Amino acid sequence: MRLGVRLWGRLGGAALSLVMVAVLGFFLFRVVPGDPVVSMTRGRPTTAAMQAELRTQFGLDRPLHEQFWNYLTSLLRGDLGTSFTFRRPVSEVILERLGPTLLLVGTSTVIAVGLGLWLGVRAAWRRDSAFDRAATGVSLTLWAVPTFWLGMLLMMATGDLFPSRGMRDTDTAPDFVSQALDVGHHLVLPSLTLVAVVCAEYMLVMRSSLLEEMHAPYLTTARAKGLRDDLVRRRHAVPNAVLPAITLVFLRFGLVVAGAITTETVFSWPGLGLLFYDALTGPDYFLLQGLLVVTAGAVVVMNLLAELLYGVLDPRVKVV
Amino acid sequence: MRVKLCALLAIAMTLGMATPSATAQGPVILKVAIVQQIDSMNPFLAVFQSSTEINRLMYDYLTAYAADDQRVTEGLANRWEPSPDKLTWTFTVPEGKKWSDGQLVTAHDVAFTYNLMLNDEVARTANGSFVTNFASVAAPDDRTVVIRTKAPQVTMLALDIPIVPRHVWEKVPSIKDYANDRMPVVGSGPFVLTDHVAGQFIKLKANKNYWRGPAKYDELHFVYFQNSDAAVQALTKGEIDLVNRMAPAQFDSLGDKPGVTRNKAQGRRFVELLINPGAQTRTGEPIGDGHAALKDVRVRRALAQAIDLDALVQRVSLGYAEKGAGLVPPVFGKWHWQPGEQELRKFDPAAANAALDAAGHPRKADGTRFGLRLVGRAGRAYDEQASEYLKRQLGDIGIPLDVRLVSDNQLNEATTVATYDLAFSGWATNVDPDFVLGLHTCAQRPGADGKGGTSDAYFCDATYDQLYARQLSEFDEGKRVEIVKQMQARFYDQVPAVVLAYENALEAYRSDRFARFTTQPAQGGVIMAQNGMWGYYGAEPAGRAAPPSSRGPALAIGGLVLLALVVVGVVVARRRKATAGERE
Amino acid sequence: MSGFLTRGTGRGGKTGFLAHRAGVAGAAVLAVAALVAVIAPLLIPADALDVTRVTAAPWQSPGADHWLGTDHTGRSVALLVAQGAGTSLFVGLTAAVLAVGIGTLVGIVSGHFGGLLAGALLRVTDFFLVLPALVLAIALSTVLPRGLGTIVLAIGLTSWPSTARMVRAQTLTIEARPFVERARALGGGHGHVIGRHVLPSVVPLVLVNATLAVASAIVAESTLAFLGLGDPTRISWGAMLHQAQLHGAVPQRAWWFLLPPGVAIVVVVLAFTLVGRALEAVVTPKR
């Protein structure tokens, strides 16, 4: 019963957040001065009538409250307006770029989570060992590294080893294996960049999570039973410590989003992050607004999932 | 789990080493870097320079500009004739030209395209300005197009409108929603659009039906780059074959690269410094908040005199530019104007100081006269650097600058509502100077609501406007050139803006893969961003010699790295298994 | 302060901040960086950083004249890095102070007063906590006019929620203690309780938080500058990297233009992080 109430509370909170995201998205980009139509047509023979026509096409000639109402009702239908740059629905443009981003972020997150958690466990279990110091030191350093700079360095250092941009070459054979290999080849540097930065965060989280767990009395009991050290770690400590760490992974999803923007910009990876950067030059306000709503919305939903998951998996947690 | 993943990746990679990455007998492809986004492939909607350039490859215009000297030459029409009163123009579309799907090109296609624009407001989005003076367009037979204009118009041979096939476009229900992406896209140009993935690439194939004969290679790919830096890097690696719009430093960096040839061309752009001359709307109401002192032409001349154009060319453009003068760049030879000895304003801070004293702006106790705001675009290398020089040079004559570098949108806002004193601007000019000259007429100022203007200089001068009207109906080219030069002299004298420089177009290509490109004009011309498609159409492959493929060894190294990862992974997994067995 | 320095347990049973060697090293690095930031503008002649007055050739690799080479305009990279320290540290510190200030205020108010106001504040905090801060900061700096103030505002306004959360938790803990209840029973008003009991117990935590916030603010500044949203008229480490990218340092293989500003960021951010972690270990009681 109480669980149900809390669940609804969480859902309501997330829904409220989504509404706030939508409102923020509108006012942040619509109240700014500047006539986007002028930017669009700059440098070309344009008549006043042509400008007025564009303004009507984008609904910019209506009063603000009407624009807001239109925006909200369209949003409910999944319509995010029309991009100035692409002359197409923002939702369509965003959907088109979703695949590459999911590929990059997915690959990097899987590797980063695996590697980060493993390093974290090792480091925590042998606290203050040379391994711990090295791993913690490297992680803290990587955490301090601006993502884009790391990408630029990797690009300069690897020289001709990897392609400098994009997701695939245009002249690769059309069969699946060649295409997959080509994409894999292009994926190496951007995912390495993203892994390096995100992995550091996960390693530190896992390490501190396990360190807290290690003070728990049941581990002492387990050791007293005569269980081998390795077994205590694997069977008892890690499963309990992994849980909060994994939920934290979900909670830090915003970090990955931020990393993706700069990584995709450096490597011209044709995903949402690059779209975000492209939308900045202009700027294409409708597109930016759509991207803000979509990314922030995704993060809100991820958080909700993380919290629900946390509650389901760990009965000790009363937050849910 | 992780081990498995690594293994999969590595197996895929080692497989990659086994499969030959570059097939020997593949098609010959020209790969070109583009930095700007494509807004639309629909030629009625496409506004960006990148999109119009690709449209030029897909569709012919009624007339074209020759590669060697940019004179008007055959497009879809090969003959044209104005009536004695210059109000009716008759164009002849010769027999034998075909669309890429094999259908014949007729005068009806031309009439359909123009009439679509006359009847549908949306179809005028991109090129509407060319047809505003049209009264009617008709095709009495398959070969003849008759255009009636409301007033005589000299620019009838400079109609930059892509002609679309009627048999495809008459089935389009709504121009606004038509993305023109039914591949392959039927056109009449030298290339046919076959694939387009937004933000990644655009693929075109040589049009075998092209009436000038097919191009000398098979495919033309445009590869999207997020900045020219990445594009230049890809060129040095041999990933692409042609790059343009390079920064001077990037151009210099390619000087000693084997297999790369650079092309320093005269550009058709100029950069200018706007000086707010007391902006007014079309109805004469003051608009914006420009500094009052700038209304005085003596002050504007003094500012112009204090700017060292040579230093800007040398230090900001690293010599890759020509000193600015008139509104038409030197690449359009006959229209270009240079000030004579009498008119020339030499860089002379002392004279500028004296002029400002005389104009009633003496230096105050702190050595300054009055401060001005300078608006430029953040992220545009020229603005960021040139503003430093202007700050110093105008500071030297007692005018401290408050430099504001802002986003594109904010810059446009500042210039359209005239909330600037000084601002950077610039325009690309066409073969016919009408557009750039027309920009600076009184009629181009915004309406009372601050909207609808296309000028950003707020120039309004009776003498200039009279000359503009005269050149527009002067059908004797020699006389028209004279008037156009007089207009530029007037603009120079009244200084609503200082033309700072004509920047060179800096391009480079892989000469180990493509031996030659057709430039426009022949001497010192550009390959990309032409008034035509000659650069791409005329490219000649450097034989079927092995292309510089660094991808083979690269893939091998990548594979090796991952193979090493797998070995480590397997070893760890086995060790774990072993200990597990021991335990159980 | 000396008590603070020696209290707490460090590695190997030693006590106090001074026992955390990494933290001490970090503090030393920061002292040097601060010194450079203050001294550089005084010592570097204005002409050396004015692109209109430099005489050296652009893109020189490191050598005797310029031991970190020159940039695309011929300015010395070493001098630029020194000059940039001021801007980067200034933005980092002010943005952190702004963020932590807002966070502390919101945290104490929502923790102390409760009721509808607290509920609303908590809701807003949670909202901003989940939003990707960088995305929001980018959005803000796009719509506001370019400048140092905008950067500070964009970072400050988007990175306060974690502080608010933590301060609120601490406030609730303290106010549940018997001595606070006693103070309240004796007639202590809101001001008394907050000023005498809540604030003192919150300050050490806030200090830790502020140190870590500076670290992320400096990284955020460099990212915004790299994306072209910084103040282009000022030299900062992020702005240098933006210039390096804009003018083609990677194809030029001009590592001397790319490496120093990045290393400077990493070193300073790492130093702030180490100091923050050491402080954290000192102020939070071990279980």
TrEMBL record, chain A:
Please give, as recorded in its UniProt entry, the membrane topology of this protein: Multi-pass membrane protein
Instruction: Using the record's annotation, list all stretches that form the ABC transmembrane type-1 domain.
Output: 98-310
Protein keywords: Cell membrane, Membrane, Transmembrane, Transmembrane helix, Transport
Places the protein is found: Cell membrane
Q: Where are the transmembrane segments?
A: 7-29, 102-125, 137-157, 187-205, 241-261, 285-306
Q: According to its UniProt record, what is one Pfam family this protein matches?
A: BPD_transp_1_N
Q: Does the keyword Membrane apply?
A: yes
Q: Which domain of life is it from?
A: Bacteria
Main location class = membrane
The record's InterPro entries line, in alphabetical order, gives: BPD_transp_1_N (IPR045621), MetI-like (IPR000515), MetI-like_sf (IPR035906)
Answer yes or no on keyword Metal-binding: no
- Protein family according to the UniProt entry: Belongs to the binding-protein-dependent transport system permease family.
Q: What is this protein called?
A: Peptide/nickel transport system permease protein
Originating species: Lentzea atacamensis
UniProtKB/TrEMBL annotation, chain B:
* Top-level taxon of the source organism: Bacteria
Please name the Pfam families in this protein's record. SBP_bac_5
Solute-binding protein family domain boundaries: 72-435
Q: Which Gene3D superfamilies match?
A: Dipeptide-binding Protein, Domain 3, Periplasmic binding protein-like II
- Keyword vocabulary terms for this entry: Membrane, Signal, Transmembrane, Transmembrane helix, Transport
Report the InterPro entries cross-referenced here. Answer: Peptide/Ni-bd, SBP_5, SBP_5_dom
Which residues belong to the signal peptide in this entry? 1-24
Indicate the transmembrane segments per the record: 554-573
Alphabetized SUPFAM superfamilies for the sequence = Periplasmic binding protein-like II
As for subcellular location, the record says: Cell envelope
Family as reported in the entry's similarity comment: Belongs to the bacterial solute-binding protein 5 family.
Q: What's the protein called, per UniProt?
A: Peptide/nickel transport system substrate-binding protein
Originating species: Lentzea atacamensis
From TrEMBL, chain C:
InterPro entries recorded for this chain?
BP-dependent_transpt_permease, MetI-like, MetI-like_sf
Extract one GO cellular component term from the record: plasma membrane
Predominant localisation class: membrane
Q: How does it sit in the membrane?
A: Multi-pass membrane protein
Q: Which keywords belong to this entry?
A: Cell membrane, Membrane, Transmembrane, Transmembrane helix, Transport
The answer to keyword Transcription applying to this record is no
The UniProt entry, under CDD domains, shows:
TM_PBP2
Q: Which residues form the ABC transmembrane type-1 domain?
A: 85-276
Q: Which domain of life is it from?
A: Bacteria
The answer, when asked if Membrane is one of the entry's keywords, is yes
Residues annotated as transmembrane = 21-44, 89-109, 121-141, 147-167, 202-227, 254-279
Give the record's family classification.
Answer: Belongs to the binding-protein-dependent transport system permease family.
Protein name, entry field? Peptide/nickel transport system permease protein
